[in-house]
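Section 4.2 – Deliverable D4.2 (structural model, holo form)

The reporting period included a commitment to supply a predicted holo structure for the target in complex with zinc ion. Inputs used:
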Amino acid sequence: MSAGVAMAGLNSSRSEPAPASTAPKPSSTTIALPICIAPFAQRELDPMFDDMRERAGVNVLFPFIYSHEPHRAGSPAEGFHGGNFATPHMQYYRDIPLTYQDMRAPEFGDVDVLARVIPVALKHGIRIFCFVLEDNVLPAAVPHWQALYEIDHHGRRTDRHPGGPCYNNPLYQQFTLGLIEDYARSYEIGGIMWGSERQSGLLNALSLSQSSGEDPGRTTCFCEFCQKKGRNRGIDVERARRGFGEVENFVREGRAGRRPRDGSFTAFWRLLLNYPELMAWENLWVSSRHEFQAALHARVKSINPALQVGWHVWQNLSFSPFQRAEEDFAGLAGFADFIRPALYNNVAGGRFVSFVKGAQSSVYGDLSPETILNLLYRQLNYDEAPRDKLAATGLSADYVERETRRAVEGVAGRATQIWPGVGIDVPAEPGMAHSTPESVSRAVKAAFKGGAHGIILSRNYVEMKPENLSSAGAALRELHLI
Ligand SMILES: [Zn+2]
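Output (structure tokens):
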């Protein structure tokens, strides 16, 4: 079923809500906003929805509905537990170690956020999509989570990024399938977006990441389930493990400023030559995540084909030709109604600088940072600022347009829609660019010039300056989209 048909089916199956007095007619183009939980539990909803509708014509909201990370709830970190901000209906969570107390977020008392928000949102012409974004850190308050997490190549359980829950772990599979089934059956939602800001162990070990300083000894995953799956694919698990040990040494030497005798690129290529198991393990991780996503998509569609299921895609793809190869939009389109590539251009410059630093400690160790950046610009098809100005400038609206177009062309011929995540006031570290009404306007227009089918104004309503959200709305009005 096409996404367009799914949307029409959803609308026609619902009784027409009474229109809010001031609300304009919702646009047929998806104009979405992610939002943390606190405002849903604590604020008056009608004025908040009026504000979103009037400023930017928002017609879809993505609450971070399951998270153990305090900033996604909008809560203080001290003593934070988090979890499901709706109600876990336990019939959907069989044979997993997590209890109701493990899963249920206690931060806002008895409030079931979905039950509270959905009827009011629908009255304003706003549909709610559950946003399940994988935690970056093992939930400290929930010891039962540990059994779901990956094992690194030294045999240690991971507890944070770049490790995370394992896609081949049946407990994590059952938990996530149960969670989305719970949302799909228990609430009148418009859809579900799942996301993970991770990549394969090999790319992490090689420091090819916007989070480039991470420990190269934390390569994943070598849990019992991944080992079994690897053996079934004919991979020599012990040679894969040894190969990752060699990569770890290679990167540690690079970070210490010691260039291999034959050059960094040759040493990198020799690792792949001597340990083809590295690429096989890479493929195992990536294909396992895609199989996991396909299973989530199939589960929701089996419950209600009208619900839209899509993927948040980590911004690291914008900097890495390596991860770009792994996350092929044409492949993702086989099990996606929509895809949200994160294209936060204000913070992208600083993140790109971090990626270059990591790349110089491994694969590109033969080159200066300036040369690496120019090489990556050519490989990724960008025309952006020189390295010494990049963090302060950010990436341009032209980047937003090019990356949107690449995604749109990637899914061509399928019903999958591209809803780029355009950044508005994404928190910037010192020295990074900040959003302005002008930069937001340019980025929004660039997304649609690139062929976007909708847009996700990112990454959190509460982070946005009102004038910048209004500027997004003004651009959408200029484009006659709202
Ligand atoms: Zn595993």
